[in-house]
Design a protein that fits this description.
The structure holds 2 protein chains of 2 kinds. Chain A is built from 6 helices and no strands. Chain A is mostly helical. Helices cover 62% and strands 0% of the residues of chain A. The two termini of chain B are 36 Å apart. The chains are: A mainly alpha, B mainly alpha. Chains A and B meet through α1, α2, α3 and α4 of A and α2, α3, α4, α5 and α6 of B.
């Protein structure tokens, strides 16, 4: 793009911005000012987006539930202040911060959030490690089950064992025998 | 539209007075700093805006609720870190409370995406809800038109889509959007202009089909 083209784009962008200021100021009307010095296609698109992109409201239930949660966090923040921790200074709400942040800083700049990827090798390594731990744990549990004293002492196991021993002894098991 | 409020600041230490930018939420922010329970007023004022932004970003009501909750909890927890400053054009790090809140929301949305590995928007579902919100009695034609408009916006690159949503849904000024996105006002103007060009072409093609 040449400097001339760039300047042209910036001028057009400025005109668009001025038009949008006027469109958005006209609450309750479907169309923007007709006399605007702007490409008609851009005007139509602006009018259309102004009409069709509306604000979405959450449910009343959600609003009240979150209000309650915030009130609880605020009350928790007041306790250390009342105890003198924040006397004369700014109160910091560490309890709520721990709940809200999950280890990331919501105030940190994140300019290219769309392009950032998860650390895949770390994820795969983590998954492999946890799988290995799971398999090792399962193996240890099975070994313990087989080796522990009094193995198979449950009523079902005892009954099965009796049937097997009766088969071995004389072939047949009399269900009526007590 | 939430416009900035300007007023006279106290004379500086050097002696003279200067015009500075005062946040329209200054009273509420000060009250919330003194007593965290007062944060409720800020919450009620901006709930629908933050929720709406999250919904347009993620296209899912449950995720939008989750982001909204995290945003307000983070704002309450970090209120002491909020600094009222001049407009972006007046210097680095300029901020008002709404810009600051939306920066948090933007970061929470990004974090949500990173955590859940989800890509943005379910355009059809979102458009249907948006259309219902526009006018229940207008019927299928209006819904279809709203769906077309939203689909055109949803196809935009993320930064253009975000700028359009902040401009048209949240009715933010260019300066506020610049503060939220961390760009200059000129860059935001060009971003929106190009986005509108693309949307206009897209809608025009749809109209001819």
């Amino acid at each position: 793009m040449t400097p001339f083209e760039r300047d042209g784009t910036e001028v057009e962008a400025l005109l668009t911005d001025l038009y949008l200021e006027r469109v958005l100021a006209r609450h309750g009307t479907d169309r923007g000012p007709a006399d605007a010095d702007l490409d008609p296609a851009l005007r139509r698109a602006s009018d259309r987006l102004r009409r069709d992109l509306t604000r979405v409201h959450p449910s009343f239930r959600f609003e009240e539930r979150l209000a309650l949660r915030l009130a609880e966090a605020a009350a928790a923040a007041r306790l250390p202040a009342a105890a003198g921790a924040g006397a004369g200074g700014v109160v910091t709400f560490r309890g709520a911060a721990a709940v809200a942040n999950d280890g990331f800083d919501p105030l940190a700049d994140d300019p290219d959030d769309e392009r950032r990827e998860l650390p895949v090798p770390l994820l795969i390594g983590g998954a492999l490690t946890s799988a290995a731990i799971s398999i090792a744990g399962a193996a240890a549990y099975v070994a313990w089950r087989w080796a522990r004293p009094g193995r198979g002492a449950g009523p079902m196991v005892r009954a099965a064992r009796a049937v097997r021993e009766a088969h071995r002894a004389g072939g047949g098991f009399d269900m009526s025998a007590r | 539209m939430a416009g900035p409020v300007f007023g006279k600041a106290r004379p500086s230490e050097e002696g003279g007075s200067r015009v500075t930018h005062l946040d329209r939420d200054r009273t509420l922010v000060d009250a919330a700093r003194r007593d965290p329970a007062e944060f409720d007023a800020l919450y009620r004022r901006y709930l629908a805006q933050v929720y709406s932004y999250a919904y347009y970003e993620l296209g899912d009501h449950h995720e939008a609720e989750d982001v909204t909750e995290r945003t307000f909890l983070a704002a309450l927890a970090n209120l002491d870190r909020f600094e009222e400053r001049a407009r972006p054009a007046d210097g680095d790090g300029a901020s008002t409370f709404r810009v600051w809140l939306f920066r948090i929301a933007r970061n929470v949305v990004a974090n949500q995406r990173r955590t859940q590995r989800r890509r943005p928007v379910a355009p059809i579902e979102a458009a249907a809800h948006v259309a219902d919100g526009v006018d229940v009695e207008a019927g299928a034609a209006t819904r279809d038109e709203a769906a077309d408009a939203w689909r055109a916006v949803a196809r935009l690159p993320a930064d253009r889509r975000r700028a359009i949503v902040l401009r048209f849904v949240e009715e933010m000024s260019t300066a506020e959007i610049a503060g939220v996105l961390g760009k200059s006002e000129g860059a935001v103007r060009v971003l929106i202009h190009r986005a509108l060009r693309t949307v206009a072409r897209d809608l025009d093609r749809g109209g001819r089909r």
